[in-house]
């Protein structure tokens, strides 16, 4: 497989999601990050952050793993202010396909990472398509 993609919806605006993926104080709350270390479950990874498109895309580079984790963020719909859709793409740094073993391990890791992020912002709530019209997602509209 060339890459993995996992997505979730967060109960926050795009800018808060961006800060949650880039600011130490916000990342510590959900990813256990300190000094460029991210914790996914019981595993810790060294990483660096690459900001190519501010507030829309964040890239985490895991050099020891040879992987790039790209988070793409967008509003869930035009009618919502406090719902951000986050898509995580896991790919190799060299552009080669992921091996089956790496793919299986990182499918679990990516799912767990996105679950940690979702649980931090949403608690137990999984935002479904039917929830997108709820008044709490509309903000001041």
Describe this protein's structure:
- It comes from Fusibacter paucivorans.
- This is Activator of Hsp90 ATPase homolog 1-like protein.
- The chain is of the alpha+beta class.
- It has one domain (3-138): Alpha-D-Glucose-1,6-Bisphosphate, Chain A, domain 4 (2-Layer Sandwich).
- It has 4 helices and 7 strands; from the N terminus they run E-H-H-E-E-E-E-E-E-H-H.
- The chain has helices spanning 14-22, 24-31, 100-122, 135-138, and strands at residues 3-10, 37-40, 43-46, 48-53, 57-62, 67-75, 84-92.
- The chain has a 5-stranded antiparallel β-sheet with strand order 1-7-6-5-4, covered by helices on one side. Strands 2-3 form a two-stranded antiparallel ribbon.
- The longest helix is centred in the C-terminal third of the chain and has 23 residues, at 100-122.
- The radius of gyration is 15 Å and the shape is globular.
